[in-house]
Every structure is written in C-alpha cells, then in structure tokens.
Amino acid sequence: MxxxxxxGIGGLQVxxxxxxxxxxxxxxxxxxxxREGLEGKGLRVRVVGGGCHGFSYALGxxxxxxxxxxxxxxxxxxxxxxFSGPYLMGAGIDYLDGLSGAGFKIGNPNAKSTCGCGESFxx
Length: 123
Known about the structure:
CATH superfamily: HesB-like domain
Strand content: over 45%
Oligomer: single chain
Number of strands: 11
Order of helices and strands: EEEHEEEEHEEEE
CATH class: Mainly Beta
CATH topology: Hypothetical Protein Aq_1857, Chain: A
Largest sheet: 8 strands, mixed
Mean pLDDT: 80
Strand order of the largest sheet: 2-1-6-7-4-5-11-10
Distance between the termini: 27 Å
Helix content: 10-25%
C-alpha cells in the first residue's frame, strides 16, 4: 500500500491514494534515479497542456515542493501538484519493455479520449 501525504498548514495530512505504480515501474524509476545520482529526488508526475487531445503527461525527477502531494510507493516518492492531482486520480503507472520499445505507460481512468500513440488524452 502506498503512503500518501499532502502538504498543508501545520504539516502533512493523510489523503487518499492518487496514483498506483507497478513493481516494474518503481524498479525502473529507482534504477534511473540512482544511475543519475539523484538520491533524495522524487518523480514529478504532471499533466500539461499539449498533444493532439489537449493534455499530456510529463515525468521528471525534482525536489519536493511545499504544495505537492507526496505519495511513496516502493521506495519512490511520486510528486503531484494541485493542478495535476484531479486528472491523475486513479491512474496507474507501468514500465513496459518489449519488441515495440520500452517506456512508461500511464493508464488513466479519467481520460475520456486518447490519441493513437497513447501520448496525450482528453478529459
């Protein structure tokens, strides 16, 4: 089970889980973080404007910000900003490595439509 905390006045408050991640995803994130010497950084998961359906995902290592929701899963801190949280509620993050390539895949129940390549979504 993931541990989730949201920064608020007077400290951290427990909140419901926003995202889930497979063991393959967290293992790859830890591998990348450690290889780049980014211990102590979390993985920021953001929803940004763009793509053929209006929104896309942005992933990158970052420091915790006071307003972030921080969700710890299997040794990885997922950092989620206030704008992205509602769009990511219930999303699952996986890492796939197959014949068609390797990369992170986000399954999002809030996506009303997605593009053919899976890189953008409409809400």
